[in-house]
Amino acid sequence: MVQVFGDYYHFRHRTVVKRSLSDHRGTQVRLERDPKVTWAEQQVSKKRKKRDVYQEPSDPKFRDQWYLYNPNRRDLNARSAWELGYTGKGVVVSILDDGIEKNHPDLMQNYDPDASYDVNDGDPDPQPRYTQLNDNRHGTRCAGEVAAVANNGICGVGVAYNAKIGGVRMLDGEVTDMVEAQSLSLNPQHIDVYSASWGPEDDGKTVDGPAKLAKEAFLRGVTEGRNGLGSIFVWASGNGGRELDSCNCDGYTNSIYTLSISSSTQNGNVPWYSEACSSTLATTYSSGNPKEKQIVTTDLKSKCTDSHTGTSASAPLAAGIIALALEANKNLTWRDMQHLVVRTSHPAHLLTNDWRTNGVGRKVSHSYGYGLLDASGIVALAETWTNVRPQRKCVITMVSEPRNIGSHLSINMSVEACMGTGSHVTSLEHVQARLTLSYNRRGNLAIHLISPSGTRSTLLHPRPHDYSSEGFNDWAFMTTHSWDEKPSGAWTLEIENVAGASDYGTLTQFILVLYGTGSASSSPPEQAPSGNDNCKTLDLRQICIECNAGYYLFQQGCVKECTAGFSLGSQPVNYSVGNFIPPASLDSLGTCVHLNQYMRESPDSFMASQGSPGVQLQLSSRLPIAVAVLSCMAIIATFAGTFLMLQLRSGAQIKLPSLEGGPRPRGGLQPWRK
């Protein structure tokens, strides 16, 4: 006997089998006749079906999509995300490529004209240009990975098979800065995710990235897109592995605004085409050696293919997984999404010898980033995610005077991460080392950055095909390997000539840029808006940078002391592209000024004045008056001397004041002025 609830009980008679084809009417009648029983009913098995939204897709090629669901668990865990009810519904993804076959039977249902445009020809139709070699199939293949329709009996399915998909035709023609910027900024209040599987030449010798307009498009996307939450840009990390290329020499994957995705083969190996670098955030599956399976997706002329390859295939899979996460939480910002990727990606099953544990205990690799994306894990975390605090940016000049590189150069400096200012970073996200250097053979250089927690990021590995002597001009090498570490402490930059030859070069600039968040208790007061004429400079988010007492403005940040070669003074402030300040407000005090812009003092007198910034400002402001007084005194002395000589020649007696008491100070001049 088992109590159900209250006075209701479930009886099991020892002579009645648990499941029987007969109704055991006799037992039922005896219970009904018992005066103590008010109601009795034999329990009958009923058919019930789980009302979940998931049914395994019936598409003919779904069984070949090993990367979406694989019984051995070497997959992207997409099926588990679908079982949770997430299929990308309500999310819009656009493929920036060579067009999209909008009438493909496996894409047509999800096609979104508002997420599409032909930038090459200047019209709304992104249909690709057909050739005998099917050169323009790339975009259509990428689109199918994201949002190929499920359960329609055609080909396979997309990761986010209920998402809306669009395409921008921009690679089938001359690609200019304007073309890229127009593509990156298409309908940013409608499109949630932009997926790009292209970049500069992967030849192992090119250093190239977005120009002025494209940079502005990225910035506007993350600050204004999706109603201020930020557009999400997913980028393929590059296919230059055979040429020993580095994705940190690609300014698109190396940008903090893009989510850079690498590849793994079916067996968890590093593909031959994969590029290793410290800016890669995570990995999805793609092609490998000839015996390993490739990616199933839509193809031109309403066809299906099972041979999509390279990191070109990896980025759209990531874009689809991100669409699932956005369905789970529409309020995720572009930075939230990167936090989710870092926290939910898995290093398991991915084979490489460069896995390292960073300062917060996460495994990270230059080949795989933080590991394989987990669709189920990211949607589960997205459901309960709280938005990260506003981004802070701390800029620190580590080297401002030329340093000879030689065979090895190491620079070590302890930083406080802009403590005491509104730019104070306590938890890291992206870290940049902005370097300007010359070297007679750039490809022989290896560059490493070591964080205070001991995490060693390879910013640049040697590139044997790079014979250039141009060096790097303010190139922002980026690493994600110190995510969530504390930034305060000693940072070390190492530049090494690995060839052992008699190469030579000079490092002229090393600026450390720390991006991240501050603690809740150290949040600065609300900053002045960009229209405030009293603002000295703005950061890239149009937030006024105001330095607290005892700190001074230096290169869009606040520093406690001006670095070598700079001194406290007043100068017109130079602004970046995003700083729209009226010219009348450009005169800035409390600024670190380069010495060649400063007053022309002798080195000895300048060094003597370094002890007190306040005195230095006071002296510099009195200098014109002092010069005028000294000039007047010189004229008077000359006149008096001439008059005295004439008097002596004429035999006159002149009474001079006694000098025994010494000179009398008259509010006197400071010693350096004498």
From TrEMBL:
Residues 388-520 form the P/Homo B domain. It comes from the Eukaryota. One of its GO terms (molecular function) is serine-type endopeptidase activity. It holds the Pfam family P_proprotein. The chain crosses the membrane at residues 623-646. This is P/Homo B domain-containing protein. The active site is at D97, H138, S312. GO terms for cellular component: Golgi membrane; trans-Golgi network. Belongs to the peptidase S8 family. Keywords: Cleavage on pair of basic residues, Glycoprotein, Hydrolase, Membrane, Protease, Serine protease, Signal, Transmembrane, Transmembrane helix, Zymogen. One of its GO terms (biological process) is peptide hormone processing.
